C-alpha cells in the first residue's frame, strides 16, 4: 500500500507539457506563435512546429519517455493510439539518435482501417490522419509500457471527414464560441476575445474484487452481470467489515488521485455513491475538449489502478440489475477568456437581462433538439438506466429551480417579471426584470437537465461513454439559438424592447420543456406525453434523431457535421448496438450451457438421491421432492429459453447490418435474454450457494 504523503502542488502537472514548461523551454517567438494558435486558432507553421517538437521530445526524454503516440478518440468510445519510438535510423557509428519532427508532431498516419467509419472511408483508402489538438496539452504517461509522450489529436479521413469524437467537438466549440461572442457584443461587452464551453463531468464507477471478477464470464466479456439475484441479507454486514473495505478503497483513491494529478487532471471530489460498491470522482471543470480528454484519462486510470490494487473497475452503466447504475453528470457552462460565466445570473438588471436571454435561448435549444440530446446519451448500457426509476427518465426536461421558474411564470403571465422570490419586490427600471440571486439550491435530483446555480447539468450521459457527443450537441444547439437571436437583435431599432420581447416569446414558446417536479413518477410520463415531449426509451429508437432534416440543417449550418458524417455516425451507432447485444447474448448462451445447466443437473441428482435415501429410510421426503420438482421445472424453463435465445441470436446475425439488424436485436434478442435470465435468477435463489458456479451479487458487491 502506498502510504507516502504527497504535496499536491509539487506533483500536479509534473508530466504535462503545460504553460510553465512551454514558457521555460520555448524561445519567446515560438511560444508566442503557439499561444496565438491556441488562443485564436491560427494555423501552426512547420518551422514553429519543428522547434516545439524538439523541445517536447527533450522534455519527454528527461521524463523517461521512449515513445510518442498520437492519442485519439475513434468512434469506438475508447481512446486509441499507435506508438512510435523516438529512435531514428542507426548512424554509421552504430548509435541512434532520438528525433521528433514538427511534421511528426502535427500529423500522424495510423493505419486506421480497423476503426469504425460507418462507410465514410472505403478500405482501399484505409489511412486516415491524426492532427495535433494543441489546445489540449501533451503529457507523459507512465505505465507498464514505460513512459510515453501522448499527443492529444483529432482523427480525420484524407478528405477531412471526421472519424473521431474530437473533430466535431472542436468544430462545435468554435461555433458556440463565435455566436456567444456576438451575443456578448450586443450587450456591450467589448473586452472578451473568446468564449469556450466549460465542462465538468462527474464519473461514477463500481469496484469489485479482481479474483471474483475473473470467475464471471459476463463481467469479463460484457462489463455487466447477465445473471444474478440480489442477496436478501446483503446490507446487514457489520461496520467493522465495511471499515476494512474503506481502507482498501481509500488506498486505491489515493493512487488514482496522484496518477491523475501528475498528468494534470484536477481530480477534486470523491465519494461513495448510493450503491454499496459504487463511487464517484469529479475533476474541476475545464475547457470542453480538455475535459473530454481528461475524462478518458480518468476512466483509463481508474481501470489501471484498480488492477494494481487487486480490483476491477466497472464503468458499465448497469453492472448489476436491481442496484443503482452509473452515469456521468455533464456540467456545462460558457466562459469568456476574461473569466465571465454567461450562465451566472448576475447582480445587476443589465446582467440579468443578458442572463435571461441566454437562459431562454437554452430552453429553446433543448426544447427544439431534445431528441438529439437524448441520442447523445444513448449507448447500449444506458438502455438499462434511462427511464428505469433510478437515473433521469428518458424524457428530456429542464429543471430551473423555484426562483427562476417563478420569474419565467411572471414573464409568461404578465409579460413582465418585477420581483424575484427570495429578494422580495425589486425595482429594476427599464428592463422590468428582477435581480436574480444565484439559486444554488438544487433539490431536484430526478431531472435530466438541471440548472444548478451557474451551469447546466446534463445527467443522462452513460458512465462508460465519452462526454464528447453530448457536448457537441449542447454546443451546437446553443450556437443555433444564439445565432438566431443575434440575427434579430443586430437589426433591432429598439434593442431593449427587442430583447425583452424575445425573452418573453421564448419563455412562452418553450414552456413545455420546463419541469420542476418528480421526474421518476408515472404522472410525469403521462404529463410529458400531453405536452408532446418525446419519450425515447431505447438506443435504437434514439439513433434516427441524428439524421433528421432538422439535425442535418443544424449541424451543416455550423460546420460541425456534414450529412454524410451524420449518416456514417448513425450507422456506427447501429453497428455498435448490434455488436454489444450480440456479445451479451452469446455470453449468456455460453454461461448457461457450460456452467449453469451442468451445475443444476448435478444439483438435481443430489436432490434425487436424497429423496430416494430418505424414502428408503421410511421418512417423509415431501420437502425434498417438492424442491426437486421446483428446480427441475426451472431447469426445463431455462433450457427452453436457452433454445429460443440461440435461435434468435442466429437469426439476428443473418440480418442486414445497420438499422434492421440493430432493431432486431432490440425487439427479439433482448427479450429472449430477459426470458433466460428470469428462471436462472430464480434458481440461484433456491439452490445451495456452493453449487452455484460463479460468485453471487452478495460476493461481488459486499465483499470488495
Ligand atoms: P454535485 O455532485 O453536487 O453536482 P460535484 O462537486 O460532484 O457536485 O461536481 C460538480 C462538477 O461541476 C465539478 O466537476 C465542477 O468542477 C463542475 N462545475 C462547477 N462549476 C462549473 C461551471 N461553471 N461550468 C462547468 N462545470 C462546472
Ligand atoms: Mg452533480
Automatic annotation (TrEMBL):
One of its GO terms (molecular function) is glutamine synthetase activity. GO terms for biological process: glutamine biosynthetic process. InterPro entries: Gln-synt_C, Gln_synt_N, Gln_synth/guanido_kin_cat_dom, Gln_synth_cat_dom, Gln_synth_gly_rich_site, GS_Type-3, GSIII_N. Gene3D superfamilies: 1.20.120.1560, Glutamine synthetase/guanido kinase, catalytic domain (3.30.590.10). SMART domains: Gln-synt_C. Residues 66-160 form the GS beta-grasp domain. It holds the Pfam family Gln-synt_C. Residues 165-596 form the GS catalytic domain. It comes from the Bacteria. Belongs to the glutamine synthetase family. This is Glutamine synthetase. It comes from Faecalicatena orotica.
